[in-house]
Amino acid sequence: MATKKPAPPAFAWDEDLIAGVQTFMGVPFSRDLSKSKAAILGIPFDCGLHPVRLGARTGPAAIREQSTLVRPYQPPIADYNPLKELNVVDCGNVRVVLGDTSESFRRIEAAVSHIVDAGCTPITFGGDGSVSLPQIRAVHRKYPDVCLLHFDAHTDTYPDVAGQQIPGTNIVEFNPATTFTRAAEEGVLDVKNSLHIGARGTISVQGVFDFTRKQGYELVTGVDLMEMGIRKMVDYIHDRLRGKPVYLCWDMDFFDPSCAPGVFTPTWGGVSAREGLQLLQGLSGLDIVAADVNTLSPLHDVGGMSAFLAGTCVMECIFLAAAAERARKER
Q1: CA 4, CA 158: separation in Å to the nearest integer?
Q2: Is 5 domain-assigned?
């Protein structure tokens, strides 16, 4: 009697059978940017200098995980799918070298440069606040007049602090507190048209707000923001930055810890989730050329709520990139 032959496989050995690695909201994993107008990039790096809160390097993985809860349509504000419109791909993570800030920055700058040079808008997530500096360097080469729009509980424009050492000196050249100090010194931002929004106490160094303004930045404190209100703040931002290329930096500790406890430097008195998302949505119409969401610290999160909120902020950035791309096509 003839032996019965086994049935052929029900599926081919391809995407119908094998799921890919987890990407942001399930977009394709690819480094081919030829058909895309925006690309996701994770930056799993932190300087490791915080005395008690470490773990921002695990932010990209947590944001991708919680992004399964984020949806692509947002009526009545934006009832279309920007992931499809921009053909968004997830490029994966920069291969950083933990403990070697200079080498990691070199790699981050190179990775973001590839995205910018391909005509794509980089949408990134980190990582502590230091990772914005190498990204701005990359963006500045294509947009030499790029302006910073920075939402944060801190200005990240601190003077160098004694006791944190560069070899042969008494300062750390690169750390999350001096990101925009270095950016101003290097001339990679149009500082006079750059805004820090939401800075508040408590902080560890006296005179930081005055120091920030002396570098040429405009600072709208958290107190000023609450007095103005969200709508007036949005109008003011548009008046200041209309027609200018904008690097959007969104630090998750801009939110109050009641809705984002898993952040690098939690500071009470921040905005609610509703207020923060309203601010982000109100930026539509600006020429957003890059966006980064940073300072998530998953080790200190509660039930993934901060990572979920960060993923939602990333999606808002994608909506902003889509609106900016539509405006460019109309020009």
Answers
A1: 76
A2: no
Q: Which two structure tokens, joined as six digits, stand for 163?
A: 């006791």
317: domain CATH number is 3.40.800.10
> Dihedral of the CA atoms 5, 6, 8, 11 (nearest 10)?
180
Angle, alpha carbons 182-318-73 (nearest 5°) = 155
Q: How many domains does the chain have?
A: 1
Q: Strands 287-294, 147-151: parallel, antiparallel or unpaired by DSSP? A: unpaired
Note the pLDDT tens digit of each residue in 178-187. 999 999 999 9
Per-residue model confidence as pLDDT tens digits over 191-236: 999 999 999 989 888 999 999 999 999 999 999 999 999 999 999 9
Report the distance separating Cα 197 and Cα 283, nearest Å.
Answer: 13
Q: What is the pLDDT of residues 131-162, one digit of tens each?
A: 999 999 999 999 999 999 999 999 999 998 54
Q: Domain span at residue 324? A: 33-160+167-330
Query: Residue 4 domain-assigned?
Result: no
Inside any domain, residue 1? no
205 and 159 in contact (C-beta within 8 Å)? yes
Is residue 298 assigned to a domain?
A: yes
